[in-house]
Write a structure and sequence with these properties.
It contains 6 helices and 63 strands. With 800 residues, it is mainly β. 16% of the residues are buried.
Amino acid sequence: SQEQYTYFLNTSDLAQGVNFVNVLAEKEGYESQVILLTIIITERNTTIEIFLNGTDFSHVSPIIYTLTIGELLNITIKYKDWLTSAHIDLASVDLEGEGLNKPLPENSILGHYSIILDSKELNRGVNFLTITAYKPNYQPRQKQIKIEIIDKASIMSLYINGENRTSDTFFNFFWGDPLNITVFYQENESRQLINNATIELVEGSILLYNLTRNANYEQYNRTINTADLGVGIRSLLIIAAKENYKTITKNIIITVSERDTYLSILINNINASTVSSFNFSLGESINITAWYRDYDTGDFIFSANLELVGLAASYSLIKHSLLDQYNLTILANDLSLGANFLVITAQKDNYTNLSEPIIISISEKIADLQLFINGTQIYYNGNKTVDVMEILNITATYKDYRLPTHIPNANIEILGIGIFDESPYNYYNLTLKIEDLQQEGLATLIFIAEKTNYKTQTFQFFLKIVQKQTNLEIFFDNVNVTIDPTITLPIGSILNLTVKYTDIAGAHITNANVTLSLDFTADLAQQIPYQQYYIIIDTSLLKIGVNIISLEAKKPNHDIQAENLRIQIRKIRTDIDTEDGDDTYTIILEPASTSEDVKFTIEIKNLDFGGGIEDAEVTYEWKHGDGDLDEEGDGLYELTLKGVQEGTYTITITAYKEGGRYDFEEFEITLVVKRSEEESFLYQILLVVAIIAGVALLGYIVAYQKYLKYPKPVRKVRKYRRTLKRKRAPKVDIISREKAFNDLYSEELGMTSKLVKSKPKEEVTTPSKLIKKKPLKSSDDKKVEETPKKIPQKSQDNQK
């Protein structure tokens, strides 16, 4: 390498800016040399990376970050050398803002500067922070961050009287109803209640109520009586607020209506709403009782104003001293004869006003007729359902309407049927047999009660005469199948059909006609001790499949009961198997045997009735043919296969019996006939030897035909002769004799030289000097010329 002097100058020893350095070279006896160097020292380029809560904002401009008040902000700064990307330690990294000036401590291990800033140290709203990184001899860097401090997100749920009505605005109440307002003012993320919040209910700029926190539940609530709001529409605003939390408002429209009411009136204990008019006789008292109540709560309304208007003067109803009701008693003499149209009015502030019209007709003295059938009172135009076998005990009370006392010696009758007898116990009685009416359907009874000086009383009532109601229960083999009279049985089985035919009280109906019908008709016999009807059905008489049999039970004056019975008849289930239960058999041949006789015993069972199935036609089929099995009795059948040779066989057993009542399935037997393992191994060895010998013999034959049958020259001529049959002339290369010997000589010489370590001499005797040029004879005594001859082209005719 070139000879030189080297000196390393550390630029940190120089001042930043322009520096002049003299390089002096001198030696005794030589002329000195001075070189002036100008060195300009600049600051090192730097980079700055900023991370806010772990997110890289280095390439974001402008940097805007949103914080919820109370949240922490981790500011991490990486101040690096631009060229080496190395961390710049001991730098001054400061965070400045409005009223804020903090240095960022260095973490030398992680290679950054960081600080955790509490959002409470910043102002609510937008804050601009500046981060400055500086170190002598390094390029300073500065980043500006826009921090927006927002209130914590909050949510508000509104419950009105216990129901979530957050999404609703309009609410309707009746005057005086309680209005419970419950507010859940919660943090958005944690759903925790915001404590010490201010929840106000205002109207315009007027504060109406403050909602207080419930000590037992996480909520704010207030119960208001809508009577304090008054009747009308009120637009209210719910305001939920707390410092550092988002304020939420909810507008609600409260409509307070007059309370609905209802008015109940009794005229002499008769509900005025159930009749169109009231009839009174002269001298009678008319007692009016009224209840004016809240429609929703049913509470009695006190201090209301109730009046009876329509007469020459108005009458006020007075609140009863003990009972919650208003009363007024007047005499029939105070009214006019005939119809009197009167109105009862009821009113009170904040309640709906009501009026009820009533018609009171004043007539002569009247009587009160009340009728009872079997002790139960009946009413005008009422009806009763009876059966044709029933007997009715009809009782009548005939009283003075005003007193009321028994009216003796009156004439009471059922028109066209009979007259009532008077009893010493102040009532009238008549016994009526329904069968005497000699009709079915609707019968009209007209009652007439007459007495001198009393208005004639008439009464109309209807009897619905029907057949006696009945019930039907069906039993298959003592099992109740009334709901679904369906059964599945094998053909040939016996079915015990039992029927219970009873009236509505559960009593057995005797001497009824209970019949079955299909392709035949059969009557069920009656069993009086067991209160039932029965029949024994032999399913052999039914067809295989579904049999729909109609069942009918009837008796005069009784409801007819009919039902369809579904009896499904199936074939008898069977099972075909070997006597020992196996379906796979393995037979080992004797060493000197090539076949074996095999014998099977097949058993056919009746799965429904038990025992074996006899007289069946049982056949077999396998690869060598088919045949019949010999019956041995008691459901056993025998199969013998003669001379079964080595192999695997599948034997299919099929059964059939005349009449088609049995359900047979095919049965398969797997028979494996094989030799012993020792004999099989010897056979495999012999087989391998035979295959090897065969392959060797075949190879020899192929080699003989292709190579050994003719000498090599003959094979070449024969091969060339085959090419003469082609349309194109074969490609034949003929070389000179000399060249052939030279090539052969070179090949032999090369092989010899590989065996000798010393180098061969440069002078090499050519074969042409050693071998005389004489023609060679081929195997077929043809001469080959020394020089190659050109093979003349044969004409197409010669080729052909």
